[in-house]
Amino acid sequence: MNETRRAVLDALADGPVSGPELADSLDISRNAIWKHVEALRTAGFEIESTSDGYLLDDVPEFGPSVEYGLDAPFSVEYHDSIGSTNDRARELAEEGAEDVVVLADEQVGGRGRLERTWVGPSGGVWLSLVLRPNIPPAHAPLLTLAAAVAVARAAREAGVPAEIKWPNDVLVSEERANEGQSDRSSDDVLVSETSEGQSEQGTAAGARGGEKLCGILTEMEGEANRVSWVIVGTGINVNIPADDLPEGATSVQEVVGSVNRRVFVQRVLEEFDALRTDVDAVLPAWRELSATLGQRVRVETTNGDVVGTAVDIVTPGALVVETDDGDVRVHAGDCDHLRPAN
Ligand code: BT5
User: Where would I find the BPL/LPL catalytic domain in this sequence (predicted)?
Assistant: First the structure.
């Protein structure tokens, strides 16, 4: 949203304000004011024309309105439906964009890591941030961790007991979901039960450490010591019934009911913005929200499996696993939670 349109919107929110008054105060023509008002109406803002002037009645729950009231320096490119927000973000990055958020209600060609499919029905928050941070490529994983912290915090504010599983998932753990489920019937539990004698293989939801609320796919381009751009693609299951999601997934709606997605995304973006400007805060915040630390884990890496107890996370996002052969730092891989370490 450009500066003038945002100023028109702010004035309407404090309205009623007449067209001529607005034109005067913003130093643009009355015709330009009219065009901004019409464009805002098209974007779903409800603007009443009263005898005293224009008045903002209602802000759309989702859409371009995400920029309205956002306390972070991102502009938003909104799509009702898109193939992959990461693909669109890449186009924008290659054109030189910075601090743009590509946001969609529905994503029909979403990607996970290793070209896995990401399911993105309407009602979700599918977003990709285009960033140009002044960091070496090796530090980019910190942005993934920051995004996970931002999502987990926003989810917790909404009442969802979210935790982070290394490296890129936000989960609702079985235990915590059940804590918040006392009002549900026993055949309506959100997270599948893990057997008492869960083996080292782990079971479906148990191996994931809980049900998946959000996944993050970070992509980048750069040279040896400096990134050119980074795209942090974040998929959050917000107002989606579990039936529309793959097995092992959950949503905000399933845990606490539907929420206002505009407010939810704004909180994610604001938290992310605060963390990217205070990188020293990322790891401590991540540790606090982690479902992985203290767990027995198996991490599948390109050099084979690492099995042991996850004891820490260190810059720029490596998991420290205490194994029979000593501590191993794992930088990338798929992580299964086995059983809690004694
Ligand atoms: C991820 O991959 O978790 C990263 C997902 C990133 C998605 C976002 S949405 C916005 C942006 N645009 C894109 O095109 N992508 C990003 P990974 O760790 O590989 O997990 C993928 C696996 O999660 C799949 O193989 C499924 O098992 C599962 N999955 C697919 N859709 C899901 C959903 N909506 N919720 C939970 N799990 C899902």
Answer: 61-280
Does residue 128 have its Cβ closer than 6 Å to ligand 1? yes
133 by DSSP, 3-state: which? Answer: coil
pLDDT digits (tens, 9 = 90+) for 270-328: 999 999 999 899 999 999 999 999 999 999 999 999 999 999 999 999 999 999 999 99
Interval 142-187: pLDDT, tens:
999 999 999 999 999 999 999 999 998 999 976 655 554 444 333 3
Nearest to 8 by CA among 212, 118, 78, 19: 19
C-alpha 234 to ligand 1 mean position (Å): 9
DSSP H helices, the chain, are: 3-13, 19-26, 30-42, 85-94, 141-157, 174-179, 204-208, 252-256, 261-276, 282-289
C-beta separation of 314 from 280 below 8 A? no
Instruction: Tell me, using a 6 A CB cutoff, whether residue 210 lines ligand 1.
Output: no
pTM: 0.88
Kindly state if the Cβ of 217 falls inside 6 Å of ligand 1: yes
